[in-house]
Amino acid sequence: MFQIRIHGRGGQGVVTGAEMLSIAAFEQGRHAQAFPSFGSERTGAPVVAFCRIADREIRLREPVMAPDALIIQDPTLLHQVDVFQGLKPEGYVLINSTRSFDELGVGEFAQRFRRERLCNVPASEIALRHVGRPLPNAALLGGFAAISGLITLDAVAHAIRDKFSGKVAEGNVAAATEAFEYVTREMEELSHAQAD
Description:
Blueprint: E1 2-9, H1 14-27, E2 31-38, E3 46-54, E4 69-72, E5 92-96, H2 107-110, E6 118-121, H3 123-131, H4 137-148, H5 153-163, H6 166-195
Parallel strand pairs: 1-4, 4-5, 5-6
Antiparallel strand pairs: 1-3, 2-3
Helix pairs in contact: 1-4, 1-5, 3-4, 3-6, 4-6, 5-6
């Protein structure tokens, strides 16, 4: 079973992102579940959502305490909430930011993990270009597909179109595609740098 924890703030589409991730996995014939965990349910408050993906029925219902992957929609949470708590040693981290892990103040943390499983993607900027609003969730799903290989970009596009329609859907598909390509390039550059 692969477990994902998504951190963000109310109004950023954290819960919708988890739902779309589970739809994408289901589209590929996997079992999936998604559910949120709310504190104070107001715009701007920290929100966590969870997604599990497995090849057989999922019976667990509790929050994800030891994630295989983290998707961090709002980098301001990095120093307010212990977003990295429980992350498995082989875990993936995707952060919505143009800044490096060092610039974000988490470079020391990043050194304990496999560099090719850590990536930043400017998801809010990408969303602003394609959707007209800085909602990073769809773009981050595209980036997650690229870094993890767990779901395909086609499955992400299907999930987006399942959740939205018309221009909103197509804008989000375009954002997810751009983020997928961005993360793919970042991973290729890292691979070349490590080979040299």
